[in-house]
């Protein structure tokens, strides 16, 4: 059995030495996630930035803070169509009649004067003239004519329906922070401050391959005892959703020379490497051995189901232009275990390596529709279908058989049920933690 570490990384050694009860063959889920978070550092820096138009920057990672050069909005304005007035003119017990001094349109300046006891017909987005601090919606006035309106008590308060200058974003403030993954709302925010181009980090380069002499690629003849390699397709999809530059290295033979050649090639071209298969204790499982020979292995077993045989570390390879290195995630071979391992361990790490600031996975609570068998001592991830129950709460049911080779269970599910290490059998009606697939994809 290989040693878990080579002497190359004193930082990793120090990290693992400080963990209570550390066992590289049986790391608890929380401890494995902690090790990965502490060990990975961005491989993509601001020096790797490229300028893109805002429209082409969707899902890319900001390379620098975006500071607003203007106030948004640039002036106090009306939040709706109605009548702008002085808050002090609002009625007490008796209605008041306010003379209409004019009309203000969005995009035009009203140059007239609005005295006390008067109001201004105003459109949504129009500038509020000095002294006018309240807008009453047109549907809340009484006896409106071209000359005057009647306002009764209790319809609005001073300051209602007014958008303040800079309330969305003040000039000189950070609009979006470095490391932000740009989503549709961010593109709109950039446009709102007049920014046409942004600096984004280059895409993270991720190489991936499957190991196993029994694997065949789609389009090849399926010999007896062989199976089609589905893992590269799910990995491709998950990596593309993260915005990575993917390097598909195909299927690598289950023998040391081929694996070592694949690792060395991947090190030279990628920031991170993902393998599927080859990290368990089978006679032909060499991935873990190669990792230990070429670098550092933090762990190779997690107390979870599915996905127990997962390895994580960093490897390096010498080349003509000097040594190169890459983070390595050795995932199990079973299709469901690959996806579970990716979502709960690899996804967050890749975002960090890419220079992003990922938010923790969002878990929500749902009641179990049935009994679920579970033994304490390991974390289990089961595939579920969540829906709205009769009482308006969330209810989740398991998709059926939960074998780690049943990929159909992932295709049918819309969430992952997280059964924590200390939990035992779950009764119908018990509350569970679930992670919605929409928060992962």
Model description:
This protein has 441 residues and is α/β, with parallel strands linked by helices. It folds into four domains: 10-44 and 202-353, Molybdenum Cofactor Biosythetic Enzyme, Chain A (3-Layer(aba) Sandwich); 50-71 and 181-200, Molybdopterin biosynthesis moea protein, domain 2, CATH 3.90.105; 77-163, Molybdopterin biosynthesis moeA protein, domain 3, CATH 2.170.190; 364-439, Beta Barrel (Beta-clip), CATH 2.40.340. 19% of the residues lie in helices and 27% in strands. It contains eight helices and 25 strands. A six-stranded mixed sheet has the order 15-12-16-20-19-17, sandwiched between helices. A hairpin with a 5-residue loop joins strand 22 (379-388) and strand 23. The protein starts with 9 loop residues before the first helix and ends in a 5-residue tail after the last strand. Mean pLDDT is 92; it is low at 1-8.
CATH topology of the largest domain: Molybdenum Cofactor Biosythetic Enzyme, Chain A
Name the CATH homologous superfamily of the largest domain: MoaB/Mog-like domain
Oligomer classification: single chain
> Can you give the helix content as a percent range?
10-25%
Q: Please give the radius of gyration in angstroms.
A: 30 Å
Number of domains: 4
CATH architecture of the largest domain: 3-Layer(aba) Sandwich
| Count of runs of 4 or more consecutive helical residues | 8
Give the strand order of the largest sheet, numbering strands 1, 2, ... along the chain: 15-12-16-20-19-17
First-to-last CA distance = 37 Å
The overall pLDDT, averaged over residues, is 92
Q: In what range is the share of β-strand residues? A: 25-35%
Top CATH class of the largest domain: Alpha Beta
Annotation, overall tally of beta strands: 25
- Structural class estimated from helices and strands: alpha/beta
Silhouette: elongated
Please summarize the sheet with the most strands. 6 strands, mixed
Uncertain residue segments = 1-8
């Amino acid at each position: 059995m290989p040693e878990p570490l080579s002497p190359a990384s004193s930082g990793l050694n120090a990290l693992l030495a400080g963990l209570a009860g550390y066992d590289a063959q049986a790391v608890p889920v929380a401890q494995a996630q902690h090790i990965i978070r502490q060990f990975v550092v961005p491989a993509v820096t601001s020096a790797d930035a490229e300028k893109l138009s805002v429209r082409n920057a969707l899902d890319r990672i900001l390379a620098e803070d975006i500071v607003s050069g203007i106030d948004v909005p640039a002036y106090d304005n009306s939040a709706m169509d109605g009548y702008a007035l002085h808050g002090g003119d609002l009625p007490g017990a008796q209605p008041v009649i306010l003379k209409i001094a004019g009309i203000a349109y969005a995009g035009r300046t009203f140059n007239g004067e609005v005295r006390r006891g008067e109001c201004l017909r105003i459109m949504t987005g129009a500038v509020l003239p000095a002294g006018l601090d309240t807008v009453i919606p047109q549907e809340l006035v009484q006896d409106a004519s071209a000359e005057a309106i009647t306002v009764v008590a209790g319809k609005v308060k001073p300051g209602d329906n007014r958008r303040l200058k800079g309330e969305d974003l003040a000039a000189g403030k950070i609009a979006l922070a470095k490391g932000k993954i740009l989503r549709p709302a961010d593109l709109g925010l950039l446009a709102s401050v007049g920014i046409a181009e942004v600096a984004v980090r280059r895409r993270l380069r991720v190489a991936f391959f499957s190991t196993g002499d029994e694997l065949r690629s789609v389009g090849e003849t399926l010999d007896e005892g062989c199976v089609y390699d589905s893992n590269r397709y799910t990995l491709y999809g998950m990596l593309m959703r993260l915005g990575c530059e993917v390097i598909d290295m195909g299927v690598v033979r289950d023998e040391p020379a081929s694996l070592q050649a694949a690792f060395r090639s991947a090190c030279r071209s990628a920031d991170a490497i993902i393998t599927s298969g080859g990290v368990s204790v089978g006679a032909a499982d060499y991935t873990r051995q190669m990792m230990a020979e070429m670098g550092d292995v933090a762990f190779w077993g997690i107390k979870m189901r599915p996905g127990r045989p997962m390895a994580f570390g960093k490897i390096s390879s010498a080349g003509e232009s000097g040594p190169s290195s890459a983070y390595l995630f050795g995932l199990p071979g079973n299709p469901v275990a690959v996806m579970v391992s990716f979502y709960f361990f690899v996804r967050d790490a890749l975002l960090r390596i890419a220079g992003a600031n990922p938010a923790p996975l969002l878990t929500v609570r749902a009641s179990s529709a049935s009994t679920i068998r579970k033994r304490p001592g390991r974390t289990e991830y089961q595939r579920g279908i969540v829906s709205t129950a009769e009482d308006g709460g969330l209810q989740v049911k398991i998709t059926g058989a939960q074998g780690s080779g049943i990929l159909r269970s992932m295709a049918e599910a819309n969430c992952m049920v997280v059964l924590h290490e200390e939990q035992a059998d779950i009764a119908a009606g018990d509350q569970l933690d679930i992670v919605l697939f929409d928060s992962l994809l």
